[in-house]
Structure formats: structure tokens, C-alpha cells
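Q: Could you write out the predicted structure for this multi-component system? I'm mainly interested in how the pieces pack against one another.
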Amino acid sequence: KQEVTQIPAALSVPEGENLVLNCSFTDSAIYNLQWFRQDPGKGLTSLLLIQSSQREQTSGRLNASLDKSSGRSTLYIAASQPGDSATYLCAVTSLNTGNQFYFGTGTSLTVIP
Amino acid sequence: DAGITQSPRHKVTETGTPVTLRCHQTENHRYMYWYRQDPGHGLRLIHYSYGVKDTDKGEVSDGYSVSRSKTEDFLLTLESATSSQTSVYFCASGTSGSYEQYFGPGTRLTVT
């Protein structure tokens, strides 16, 4: 079974700082990896999807990278803003489990004005 | 984001009663999913569907059943609710090929 870990569980940074969120997974035979944000009491919003053949994806101030061999993905947020405060979740699908996503427990990010 | 709605958004029910949660999507996505989210566990897959009347079990399927009679609707039924099923339930739909998933707003279910 795929195990997904996100460390740290919580992170607090001053506004304007660049930051990196980490996601690690145990089975490197993944199909894709997706990053989400979740605001308190809300659903998940898709941020970026990286296919297994890709190394990174970018959207605005966000950049996600994927290193299958080491079982890691990072989400880079440039010039953080208070509106970036949320919980960030990563999810992976494995080749062995088809379209079943396995989620990490998330990193709760607070950006201090 | 995909148009995905869930109903009801909040529900309180008693132990032993059946409960049905509804998910509706307007994106004509082939795949639909039900998850539960609990503190310390993250999101866990309950059941998913890969087409009308085609469903399969996920990681935590015991005590739950699903049905999909139309592309746009995916129902989750708790056959006899228990306190351990108190949770926030999320529905998602996904595209073929990339399997990118889009989530609904969630249903908070409390079983007393």
C-alpha cells in the first residue's frame, strides 16, 4: 500500500518569504501526483497535477517538482501572502492501484502579515 | 473548478439509521469518488466509480455502499450508521487519462 507523508505538519512564515512544502511516498511506481489546498471548513482545490513522466509543473507563484526515484515531491511557493494560509495536501496514484489516490495528512501553512 | 455539489451539507443522525449522501457533477466526468476525512488520517477512499453502474471498493469500504445510475450522480449509503462514521465526507470527480480530481464542498455527518 502506498504511504504518503507530509512534513512538517504545520509551518508559519512571514509574508513575502519563499517556502517549500514536502511530500514523500513509499512506492515510486506512481501514475501521477496532485497538490491541493484546503481552507478551513471547505473542500479541496486542485493546484497542480504532475504526471509520472514530468519533472515539474508551474502555475503562477507555485512550482511543484517530482523525483520518483527518491519518492519525493516539493511544492514551492514564491513571495508568500496571507491569502496562501491554508492546509496543503498531496495525493498520489500508483500504477498498481490505478486511479486510487492516497493522501498525505497535509501541511498547515500560516503566512503572517 | 468542476461543478460538484453535495447534499446535504450537514446531517445529524442516530446510531442504526440508514443515511444516504448525494454527489452531483456537471462536468461529464467518468470517474467519481467518495472519501472521508478524519483528524490524523487525512482523506481515505471509501468507494469509487469508473462509469455508470461500475463501482469498486476503496481503502475503508466496510459499512458503506454506493450506486451510480447516471453519469452525474453518485450516492453513498451508510447502511446502519455508527458513531465511528462521524466524519466529513467529500465527493470528487475525475477525468479519464490524467485522473485529475475535483472536489465537492463536503458533508459533515454526525452520528449520535
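A: Regarding packing and overall arrangement: The interface with chain B takes residues 1, 4, 31-32, 34, 36, 42-46, 49, 51, 89, 91, 93, 99-106 of chain A (CB under 8 Å).
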